[in-house]
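Reopening this one. Same input as before:
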Amino acid sequence: MKYGMVRAGAYTPVIKVGNPDHNRKAIIDLIKQAEDSGVEIAVFPELCVTGYTCADLFLTRELMKKTVQAVKSIADAVHDKTVAIVGAPVAQNGRLYNCAIVMTGGKILGIVPKTELPDYGEFYEKRYFTSAFDGVITSEDYGVPMGNVLFKCKNYPDLIIGCEICEDMWSDIPPSVYACRAGATVIANLSASDEVVGKAEYRELLVKSLSGRLHCAYVYADAGEGESSTDVVFSGHNIIAENGGIIACSDPFERGNAMTDIDIERLIYDRRKMGVRHTDKKFEIVDFELDDKLSGSLCRETPRYPFVPTDDSGCRAELILAMQAAGLKKRASASHADALVVGVSGGLDSALALLVCNRTIAKGKIKAVTMPCFGTTARTKGNAEKLCAALGIEITTIDIKDTVNSHLKDIAHDKTDVVYENAQARVRTMTLFDIANKYNGLVVGTGDLSELALGWCTYNGDHMSSYCVNSGVPKTLVKHLIAYEAARLGGKVKAVLDDIMNTDISPELLPADNGKIVQKTEDILGKYDLLDFIMYYYCRYGFTRKKIEFLLKTAFCDVDNAQIQKALDTFFNRFFMSQFKRSCMPDGVKIGSVSFSPRSDFRLPSDIEN
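Same output, byte for byte:
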């Protein structure tokens, strides 16, 4: 383990019904395969040592004797860097239990019996097995705790494994509920779920929804080839879910195994944030130990753009734009506003704000204003005008150079510095608010989530508005939404939006050089692709800089280290010192899981020192 990552696998051995010796060998072969792949938690199907479909063979003394021998032999083969969990019948006090047997380092740690025994349709487990009891006893055959047992990693205490078996997951209150309330972060489900039409989709829904409700990882190992097909078939549908999403899965009947890295730190963060109820059910905790090293490269997808939808249908983009428009419409209605006033610069953020206004209100009620000054280039000014023309929105041009020069003269300032830059931003904001007063309108803010994170805005300049439609949208998502609208609207709108997306990001507050932008935001701050990635993992999960750096290098393996370090330095240097701007940010609609609203989501002292 490293950075809170634990590698898990769900495996389906090809078994022979009623032949523990053959099944022992098949299971050991897969355990060795798992160990070679760096798997630390290997989960196998329900009753895989004997086969789930043994029927009345379960009642025979010979099968039980061979099962005990096979289980002990499997345990002997498990090294101390892997926890293996196998399914087998266990005899106790004249009764037979359907159990998960947990083992590592050549020894058996404990046994967890199945609680819910199906006795309908093709299932008849109550013919052979007894439901789990409440409490912990010592197993007659294995001399280890049996019952309400959890398994805790000594060198990483946040990793606690709980077990349940097949039907347990399908019940109204699965045993995993109590295990997770008692601290379990990973649930192993040993299953023999036969396949019928439509069941695979429902099975996936159950697994991911349970992992989401319990803020846990869920490793589901399914029976497959070798089980009896007298009346049913088993597909080996293995699934691993984390916090509501499937992160690894094998297709039914493909004889595949599912393997991935589970991020325990994600789960713990959400548990601390959301809260986990306590349980009165008592569990015995059995300790084990794992290596503190990550085996090879990360074995899970690390998207470069965590804020950007991965689907190509446009459904998510359409939803986000509808949310922005709905929020703005409500604010305009509640304020009895007759107009929406928006500053259009020819850049990404103002383009998106204008597109949202276009969805919200009649075009004649949109007051678009472009305010060129010292750094404005013909390209950006032209794009502002072209976009409005393509959308059928009238635009007003107000050159603010004289106003800014007069103001700078009034305060006796003649340097090209932060005062020079901020004066322009504040004059623009003053102009927009005065126009809004003139037309009984609202000033629509254009600043985005990434700029709020970094404080890349002028306090009481572009920082302020009546309602900020982009305050929940990071820069990488801004680009995605504009690309979606460009494709949807087509024609002249698409042509100008494409050019806006290909223009360097800039506040254009410093004089241009022969008509070219000289103040390029990403040259100053670093690439927004990297900055948004950092913001997501720090603000969504509270990861350390060291872990975020590891994830950055995994996702952006083609980016040189200097760029990565620059982005990390920029984010962590600017994020805390900019809280005072976020503490008085305008209202705006929450879009995703990261929001900086001081009223509902993100609370931090304005004068915090990092």
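So the earlier flakiness isn't reproducible anymore. For the record, The longest strand covers residues 83-92.
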